[in-house]
C-alpha cells in the first residue's frame, strides 16, 4: 500500500512540475513575442513615416521590410502573441509585405528589372498577412469604428488574386514552369483559399482561361499528373478546346504510353469523327502496324473503322482504311466495294478510282496464272475469257483515275496498256506506250 501511495505522490509531483515548466515556457514565449512585435512595429512606424514623406528609397524599403517580416514571422510562430493582439501583429506583417509589393509593381510598370522569386514569396506573405489581419481583427461600427478599414483590407486581398496571374506570367517567361503552375493554381483556388473575399475576387481573364494556361504550363514542364488533373477544367475554355485536346493526346506519346494515346484518340474520334480526320488516319496507321506486328489473326483496325463508319458513313479516311485492309489481305471483292464507296464520297479521288481498277487487275493476274495448269481445254478457255473480262472491267476505273491525274501518266498508263493489250485494243495500248 505504501508503495502505491508513494507512486501516486510521485505522479502528482511530476504533473505539478510539468505544469510549472509549461507556464514558464509560455511566459517566456509571450515575453519574447511582445519584444519582437514591439521591435517590428518600431521599424514599421519609422518606415511608414519615410514612405509618406517620400524619403525612403526602394532599396531601404525592401531591406527594412525583410527585417520586419522576419521579426513578425518569428513572433507569430512562437505562439506567444495574445489572441487580442494577433490582428495588430498581422497588420504590421501586412505592412511589411505591402510596401515591397508596391515597390516591385512600380519597377515592373517602369520596365525595370524585377526579382520574380522575391516578388512571389512576398506576395504569398502579403496574402497570408492580410487574411490573418482580417480574421483576427474584431470589426467595430460607427464613426470611430474600423468597418471601412477592414473593407479596404479585404479589397487589397481580393486584388492580390490578379498579382498571382502576373507572377505566373513572369515565371513562364523564364521557363520556371513549376513556380508558374503554382501561381496559376493559387489563382484558380483563390476563392477557396481566401473565402473572406470570395465574392470580391474579379480576375482580368475568365476563370476557365486560367485553367487553360495552367494546363499548358504543366505540359511545358512535363508535369503530366498535373496535366491530367487540369484537363477537364482547361477544356472549358471553348475557344482553345481543340488545342488543349490535341496537346493532351500528344502528351501520351511524349510519356511513351502509346496504348493510352490510342485509347484516348479512339474515344475522341468516335465521339466526333467529322472533326478528326487527321487523328482517324493516325490511329488507323497505328492499328495496322500493331496488326502486322502481332501477325495473322490480329484485327484491331477493322472494328475501329466500322465503329467510325457506324457513327458517320461519309468519313473518307475510315472507308479507305477499310478498303486498304481488305486489299492487303487479298480480299479483292470486298476491297473493290469499299474503294467504290470512297469514290461515292469523293468523286475526284484518284487513289480510290485507281485501287478499284487494281482490284480487278489483280484478280485478272491471279486467274491468268492458273490457266496453264488447267488441263481441260474448255475450262482453260473459260478461265481465259474471264481473265480478259476482268482486265476489261478494270479499264473504266483506271480511266477515271486518269481523269483525276491527267498530267501524271506514270500513275495509270502501265496498267491501262496491259488492259488494252489483253482485250485486243492495240491502238489504245500503243497510245499508253507512248506516254510511258
The separation of the N and C termini measures 121 Å
List unreliable stretches of 5+ residues.
none
Structural class: mainly alpha
Main beta-sheet strand count, sense and barrel state: none
| Number of β-strand runs | 0
The residue-averaged pLDDT reads: 92
Which descriptor suits the 3D outline? Answer: rod-shaped
H-E order: HHHHHHHHHHHHHHHHHHH
Q: How much helicity do the residues have?
A: over 70%
Task: Provide a count of the helices.
Answer: 19
Beta-strand percent range: under 5%
Radius of gyration: 39 Å
Domains, number: 4
Molecular structure report:
This protein has helices at 2-52, 58-78, 86-109, 116-136, 147-173, 177-188, 190-193, 207-220, 224-234, 241-254, 258-271, 277-294, 301-311, 316-328, 332-345, 350-371, 377-404, 413-422, 426-435. α18 runs antiparallel to α19 (426-435). The chain is rod-shaped, with a radius of gyration of 39 Å. The protein has 19 helices and no strands. Helix content is 78%, strand content 0%. With 436 residues, it is mostly helical. The chain has 4 domains: 28-190, no CATH class; 205-256, no CATH class; 258-329; 330-436, Tetratricopeptide repeat domain (Serine Threonine Protein Phosphatase 5, Tetratricopeptide repeat, Alpha Horseshoe), CATH 1.25.40. The longest helix has 51 residues, at 2-52.
What order do the helices and strands come in, and which of them pair?
Layout: H1 2-52, H2 58-78, H3 86-109, H4 116-136, H5 147-173, H6 177-188, H7 190-193, H8 207-220, H9 224-234, H10 241-254, H11 258-271, H12 277-294, H13 301-311, H14 316-328, H15 332-345, H16 350-371, H17 377-404, H18 413-422, H19 426-435
Helix pairs in contact: 1-2, 1-3, 2-3, 3-4, 4-5, 5-6, 6-8, 8-9, 8-10, 9-10, 10-11, 11-12, 11-13, 12-14, 13-14, 14-15, 15-16, 16-17, 17-18, 18-19
Amino acid at each position: 500500500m505504501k508503495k502505491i501511495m508513494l507512486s501516486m505522490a510521485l505522479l502528482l509531483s511530476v504533473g505539478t512540475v510539468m505544469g510549472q515548466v509549461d507556464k514558464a515556457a509560455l511566459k517566456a514565449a509571450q515575453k519574447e513575442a511582445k519584444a519582437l512585435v514591439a521591435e517590428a512595429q518600431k521599424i514599421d512606424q519609422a518606415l511608414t513615416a519615410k514612405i509618406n514623406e517620400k524619403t525612403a528609397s526602394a532599396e531601404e524599403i525592401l531591406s527594412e521590410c525583410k527585417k520586419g517580416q522576419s521579426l513578425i514571422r518569428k513572433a507569430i510562430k512562437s505562439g506567444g502573441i495574445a489572441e487580442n493582439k494577433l490582428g495588430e501583429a498581422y497588420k504590421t506583417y501586412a505592412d511589411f509585405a505591402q510596401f515591397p509589393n508596391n515597390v516591385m509593381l512600380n519597377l515592373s510598370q517602369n520596365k525595370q528589372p524585377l526579382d520574380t522569386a522575391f516578388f512571389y514569396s512576398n506576395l504569398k506573405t502579403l496574402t497570408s498577412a492580410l487574411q490573418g489581419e482580417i480574421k483576427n481583427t474584431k470589426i467595430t461600427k460607427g464613426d470611430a469604428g474600423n468597418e471601412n478599414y477592414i473593407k479596404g483590407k479585404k479589397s487589397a486581398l481580393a486584388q492580390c488574386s490578379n498579382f498571382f496571374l502576373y507572377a505566373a506570367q513572369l515565371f513562364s517567361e523564364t521557363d520556371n514552369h513549376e513556380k508558374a503552375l503554382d501561381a496559376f493554381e493559387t489563382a484558380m483556388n483563390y476563392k477557396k483559399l481566401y473565402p473572406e473575399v470570395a465574392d470580391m475576387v474579379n480576375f482580368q481573364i475568365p476563370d476557365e482561361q486560367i485553367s487553360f494556361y495552367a494546363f499548358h504550363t504543366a505540359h511545358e514542364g512535363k508535369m503530366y499528373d498535373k496535366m491530367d488533373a487540369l484537363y477537364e477544367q482547361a477544356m472549358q475554355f471553348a475557344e482553345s478546346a481543340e488545342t488543349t485536346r490535341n496537346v493532351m493526346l500528344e502528351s501520351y506519346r511524349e510519356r511513351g504510353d502509346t496504348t493510352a494515346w490510342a485509347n484516348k484518340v479512339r474515344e475522341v474520334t468516335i465521339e466526333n469523327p467529322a472533326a478528326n480526320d487527321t487523328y482517324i488516319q493516325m490511329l488507323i496507321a497505328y492499328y495496322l502496324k500493331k496488326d502486322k506486328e502481332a501477325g495473322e489473326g490480329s484485327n484491331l483496325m477493322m472494328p475501329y473503322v466500322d465503329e467510325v463508319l457506324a457513327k458517320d458513313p461519309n468519313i473518307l479516311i475510315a472507308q479507305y482504311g477499310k478498303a486498304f485492309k481488305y486489299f492487303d489481305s487479298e480480299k479483292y471483292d470486298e476491297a473493290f466495294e469499299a474503294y467504290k464507296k470512297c469514290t461515292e464520297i469523293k468523286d475526284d479521288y484518284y487513289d480510290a478510282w485507281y485501287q478499284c481498277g487494281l482490284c480487278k487487275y489483280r484478280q485478272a493476274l491471279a486467274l491468268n496464272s492458273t490457266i496453264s495448269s488447267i488441263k481441260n481445254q474448255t475450262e482453260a478457255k473459260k478461265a481465259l475469257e474471264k481473265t480478259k473480262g476482268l482486265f476489261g472491267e478494270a479499264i473504266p476505273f483506271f480511266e477515271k483515275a486518269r481523269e483525276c491525274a491527267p498530267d501524271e501518266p506514270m500513275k495509270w498508263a502501265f496498267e491501262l496498256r496491259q488492259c488494252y493489250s489483253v482485250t485486243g485494243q492495240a491502238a489504245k495500248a500503243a497510245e499508253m506506250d507512248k506516254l510511258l
